Write the structure tokens for this entry.
Amino acid sequence: MNRNIKLKLAEIGLGWANFQVMRRTYSTLMGDLGIDGKLVADRCGHTLDVTQNVYRQTPVASRLPVVNQLEEKLLTI
């Protein structure tokens, strides 16, 4: 990682990205594409539970409608 990838990441302004960031990005993108969770977990070297509950992130586009609904509800109280 440090020898090959880290230098390339620094060249494009992503020097802060580490293996954990890449693992989370990979898990999230594969999940969004509908790839089987077990396959993603196997590729990441973790159990399905860890991959789904630790590494996979909910996309902002999915969170925004929920926040908007909550805001609307709070304004009617």
